[in-house]
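During the first year of the project, the team set up a workflow for recording each protein of interest as an amino acid sequence followed immediately by a discrete structure-token representation. This format lets reviewers and collaborators read both layers of information side by side without switching files. As required by the reporting guidelines, we include two representative entries from the current panel. The first entry is reproduced here exactly as it appears in our internal archive.
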Amino acid sequence: MERKIIAILRGVTPAEAVAIGTELVEAGIGIIEVPLNSPDPLDSIAALADALGARARIGAGTVLTVDEVEQVRDAGGTLVVSPDTNPQVIAATKAAGMASYPGAMTPSECFAALRAGADGLKLFPASLIGPDGLKAIRAVLPAGTETYAVGGAGPENFAAWRAAGATGFGIGTAIYTPGLSPVEVRARAEEIVSAYDEAWA
């Protein structure tokens, strides 16, 4: 089973990226995002792509411009995640052969993202949308639309989000905060994977 869990490593450094990424993959998480407001993020993405690209999807988060899309591509990333719905960023991502997951909160943003070619939606901030909000939006989205709840989804509410129609999750501080060791990240990842598997059982 491919778990639709994006590990968001905000604040990770290039020196620790591969060790942490390896523990995530070993725990069963196969999608890793390094936000571009992390220290030297492109170096971390390049290191992760080189070491783990055959076993995981590596990409960038907080991607706001077309120039940043190109930098992520050049670093070896295959995934672009944004906090907003920017048609130019989506188009550039697809033109570069990468997967696009823009942030959206309203039905209008969701449909704008899909019309621009997005592969799926990052529902952000999920804490404000809530499972009830997703359920309402899901009723009008095209069948099969990927919806990742980000910013308010975690092991304690995976089941509620799944029941509302979420297909995956982006997990940030619950899985990584600066200063955590790879072993600590592995323990958190295993807990999240266990809760995800239970929700999808």
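The second entry, processed by the same pipeline in the following quarter, appears below.
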Amino acid sequence: MSLTTALNIAKQSLQSTSRQTAVVSQNISNASNSDYVRRNAVVSSEAPGARVVLIQRAANEALFRANLSAVSSYEGQGTLRTSIDSLALAVNGVDNANSAATALGSLYEAIQLYSNNPANASLGENAIEAARQVVRSLNDGTAAVSAQRTNADMQISVAVGELNGLLADFQTANSAVVAGTQTGRDVSDQLDQRDALLKKIAQYVPISTITRENNDMVLTTSSGAILFETTPRTVTFEPKPGYDASTMGNAVYIDGVPLQAGTGGDTNAAGKIAAYLQLRDTVAPAVQAQLDEVARGLVMAFAETDQTGTDPDLAGLFTWSGGPTLPADGTLAPGIAGSIAVNAAMDSRQGGNPTVLRDGGANGADYVANTAGNASFSSLLIGYSSKLDETIPFDASAGVGTSASVMEYSSSIIGWLENLRQQATAAEETKGALVSRTAETLSNDTGVNMDQEMSLLIELEHSYDASARLLKAVDEMLANLISMVG
């Protein structure tokens, strides 16, 4: 081997080792970066010596796609669980203290106490106050549901705006990847940036990826709607300023295709947008319908009967926006929980008299049951208690059965929401564990292992030392040769 050849080998080895060391150093400096994929310097042997021919990125597309899917599912589940918790607290209060069932239980007790001593005006006032609490619970519950739906609508609008921003950023990152690939440059950093954006996009909607020539990527939702192909597709949504019991929310459109809301406590919503749609369009409206059914049942239970048998039953202790006419039997009356009120004829705060509850007559003389004016008259009060325990039909669309007493139904709606919350919580834990497992597996396969990198760095130091010694030896031999010639 000539000295020139030996010198070239040493020089190529030093250059190769320097390049490998730079790659290892980059890996070490990004060890804590969850969006960084480990680089490997691939070396080939060619005379005279070795040189780096390629910087490879240790990507695993299958694991990455699995992690994206897990992220979408977890984000949707977590958003739903958090929303249900907020809804339950807003409607029912801490430990259900503000629930319709709790207020109705107090009213039931107050009516029974009043029926045991109907001459006691204080007990009559207590019964009316209990009725006010029931009304407040239903009115406030309706307002809380409307606020939750309005907030979900606002969150959808915010999320859509953020998603459009991420898709614009993705276009920039994808263009950089494609341009770099076409010119043969190392695009590892750009690929990391693009993958980081994919993780963020997956938090909003479920995504599938297709990689084309020059590392160009196409994004679609799991249902096939195109999110990105060369340019981002527009995600559109028109928010509404407010919601009541009859308001229908607008859909979210991706490239003209509506995004479907999630279903169930263990929701199939992938991404936060579908979860917010589920709360706004399914969960919250169901709670509203249940409150409306309790209110309708109360109006019916406390209705006054015409003692002459001529006119129909009319609203008694509880009336509503459609009163004094009674709502249809067994049929949902949307929004009645928001308009239910204590009858002014019985409410002392509105100039009424609580004894009208005992005697009847809120709707005129024909509806007076205690025509003799007996202070001990209790038949109506006893009848009201019985009505609260009587099985009546409920609208199936509210989701809590079709027949029960008003007392049972009011308790059932707490159970319905609590059951949904428990399902959502359990599913969130399961899906969270899946995210952790897929992320850990992906990190183990593509992330930086400090022990391995430090060991490799030591090997490179030894290689560098060997090349340096070879270079020094060649230098010495050349110096001796030159001195001999001289």
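For the second entry, the following points were noted during internal review. The two ends are 23 Å apart (CA to CA). Residues 3-58+447-485 form one domain. Both points are flagged for discussion at the upcoming steering committee meeting.
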